Amino acid sequence: MKRVLVTGTAGFIGFHLARKLVDLGFHVTGLDNINDYYDVELKYARLKQSGISPDKISYNQLVSSSISDNYQFIQLQLEDRDALHELFANSSFDVVVNLAAQAGVRYSLTNPQAYIDCNITGFLNVLEACRHHPVDNLIYASSSSVYGLNKLMPFSVSSNVDHPVSLYAVSKKSNELMAHAYSHLFGIPTIGLRFFTVYGPWGRPDMALFLFTKAIIEGKPIQVFNHGKMERDFTYVDDIVGGIEQMVIQSPPGPAEGWDPASPDPSVSSAPYRIYNIGNSGPVKLNDFIEAIEQAVGRKATREMMPIQPGDVEKTWADVSALVNDYGYSPNTPVEEGIRKFVDWYRNYYK
Questions:
Q1: Per-residue DSSP letters for 110-129?
Q2: Which of 200, 299, 307, 342 has the fewest beta carbons closer than 10 A?
Q3: At a CB cut-off of 8 Å and minimum separation 6, what does 181 contact?
Q4: Does residue 234 sit in helix, strand or coil?
Q5: Rounded to 5 degrees, what are φ and ψ at 47?
Q6: pTM above 0.85, yes or no
Q7: d(Cα 333, Cα 2) in Å, to the nearest integer?
Q8: pLDDT one-digit tens code per residue, 58-80
Q9: 335-349 and 208-217 are packed helices; what angle lies between their axes, rounded to 10 degrees?
Q10: Cβ atoms 82, 60 nearer than 8 A
Q11: What is the pLDDT of residues 291-325, one digit of tens each?
Q12: C-alpha to C-alpha distance for 62 and 197, rounded to whole angstroms
């Protein structure tokens, strides 16, 4: 089976993806720097679920999983170029799935350097490693945030994304441009995935579902931005993982037939390069989302209406037709079901 490197495996999506690929029989190496952007204990708990004992983790050392011989973990920063190249040289990866990143729109307003270091410099190091130690396919995380001021719905990968409203979005758009250059210059097959508001068990504490659930259970008020006039294309994590799984299994992209440089589609190229939206393809109103949480928790929320925050967009909605056509992508988790699963996990995890 293929040897797959998944970066960000102490993080939310990377944790779920690594476990899924191991279950399918792939040889997986997980990588994460385990930074303190949010609760480190939650990251260690994810690793423990994957069979990694936190007391056995040491920087730049591979740790074998106790659950499966097919899974190893290494604590490493993408910014550490020499260590990353050494890892590639010793591992012969077939596929790389780069999910490691400095996340969060609002955090980028106060800590911009973290986004340059991890999302720009770190991603460059990944590209260079794939260049000098060739892989069959590089799949990497972009974001729906790249659409910025664009209000043409649903968001299409063929649309212009030149008006970002946060440095986080800038870093993700930069990743797409960097990937295209390396696909063109060095023939590296690359797939960029614009994630749309991923949620589910083991999710990030800075995301709305986590914050709202915690506050409602504790009887505290929740902050509802833009006075509740927000819509998000909430996407359950298992649907995201299912889409990435197919990209790992199937053949990498090649040059797009008929691509016209006189009228270029930005989602494809004469290089082996693709951009896809990966979402639920249906926006949910924020107030409806909150009501679903209230129902799952069994308690009403006290809502504090707030103005829209800098860097936020009012609505997201993914056109996923390209991903459906190319990989048979089929998200099928209703938001009420996904929220119920998260609340059940939250109550169990926090007792």
A1: H-HHHHIIIIIIIHHHHHHH
A2: 307
A3: none
A4: coil
A5: -60, -40
A6: yes
A7: 28
A8: 788 888 765 678 999 999 999 99
A9: 60
A10: no
A11: 999 999 999 999 999 998 887 888 999 999 999 99
A12: 31
